[in-house]
Design brief:
Blueprint (H helix, E strand, L loop, with lengths): L1 H24 E8 L2 E8 L4 E5 L11 H4 L7 E5 L17 H15 L4 E6 L3 H10 L4 E7 L9 H11 L2 H11 L2 H4 L3 H12 L20 H17 L14 E6 L6 H10 L4 E5 L6 H4 L1 H12 L2
Parallel strand pairs: 3-4, 3-5, 5-6, 6-7, 7-8
Antiparallel strand pairs: 1-2, 2-4
Helix pairs in contact: 3-4, 6-8
Length: 306
């Protein structure tokens, strides 16, 4: 009886302690940061990694299932960029790569870290580069996963490669979506169909496409309009190959071999970053962390624990 009473007395306290630890290891919600409201989600403990999602206009949602596994070893923070996902949509003049970088630094300060790693996927490379240029002392390292080219010079080649992968059925479906009442009305479901169609051939194995889960909010059309109005000038013309030569922190570049980004673009990245490490994943396309997750995790762990 005495033992039963002792267990009964301490189990609730133990559960409270476990819940407290869980609260420290995982937090999620909207936060007022850098003059706007951002959705931020943190998982795990240890060396901090901030994940910068692609787009522009997507959210952290498609990254979380696989990148969340890194929280076994690191503190992984996801966030929705301003005018994306669950984050607020400020005025267009407050949507620039500089404010994007400021958002990341506000997250860093909120987490209480002097330095962070950035793990940037696809278009997320541009906000990550901007952060590295504006806040170099706060960067422990950057991991570029399937980054878009750091200039617009490869746009034509990438568009041609993407077009070559599309079938007649894809073109028909695209036309049907664009002409649908839902798309014309700005419905999120129609935009999600269009986005998914654009990524259908971005995988080494067609079956891996089922792993891509996009969360498109109801305000997607209005948010995207503000986003592209704010970023328009910067997106029309940019070239970061010269400016990144000043990066003193380590860089890891992960490339999916069947992605549409050409080899020449990666060669230019390596020429600009001679101390960077390039790792090619032979059986991956644009989403390495979905197609070769274990190898992806090993590459990230090796880089951070070097």
């Amino acid at each position: 009886v005495a033992k039963t009473l002792t267990v009964g007395r301490w189990v609730p306290m133990l559960l409270v302690a476990l819940h407290a630890c869980a609260a420290l290891a995982q937090t999620e919600g909207l936060q007022e940061l850098n003059g706007t409201v951002l959705y931020v989600k943190t998982e795990g403990t240890g060396t901090p990694i901030v994940a910068v999602h692609g787009g522009p206009g997507l959210s952290h949602h498609y990254l979380a299932p696989q990148l969340g596994k890194l929280s076994k070893w690191f503190q992984v923070t996801f966030y929705d960029q301003r005018a994306s996902g669950q984050s607020a949509t400020p005025a267009p003049d407050e949507i620039t790569l500089r404010t994007f970088a400021g958002d990341v630094d506000a997250i860093r300060k909120k987490l209480g870290h002097d330095q962070i790693y950035l793990l940037a996927h696809s278009w997320g490379a541009l906000p990550a580069i901007k952060y590295g240029l504006l806040y170099p002392e706060q960067v422990k390292g950057i991991i570029f996963c399937n980054p878009i080219p750091f200039s617009r010079e490869y746009d034509g080649e990438m568009a041609a490669a993407q077009q070559a992968k599309m079938s007649g059925a894809d073109s028909t479906n695209r036309s049907l979506i664009l002409g649908s009442p839902g798309f014309k009305a700005g419905e999120a479901a129609a935009y999600k169909k269009l986005l998914l169609l654009s990524f259908r051939h971005s995988f080494y194995k067609e079956s891996n496409f089922s792993k891509l889960d996009l969360d498109v909010p109801d305000n997607y059309q209005a948010a995207s309009q503000a986003l592209y109005k704010g970023l328009g000038k910067e997106l029309r013309a940019y070239d970061y190959y010269d400016s990144i030569k000043n990066f003193a922190f380590p860089v890891l570049i992960l490339r999916g071999a069947v992605d549409v980004v050409p080899q020449a673009a990666y060669q230019r990245m390596m020429d600009a970053l001679p101390t960077a490490t390039l790792k090619v994943f032979r059986k991956s396309g644009h989403f390495i962390f979905m197609e070769q997750n274990r190898k992806f995790n090993r590459a990230v762990r090796k880089f951070v624990h070097r």
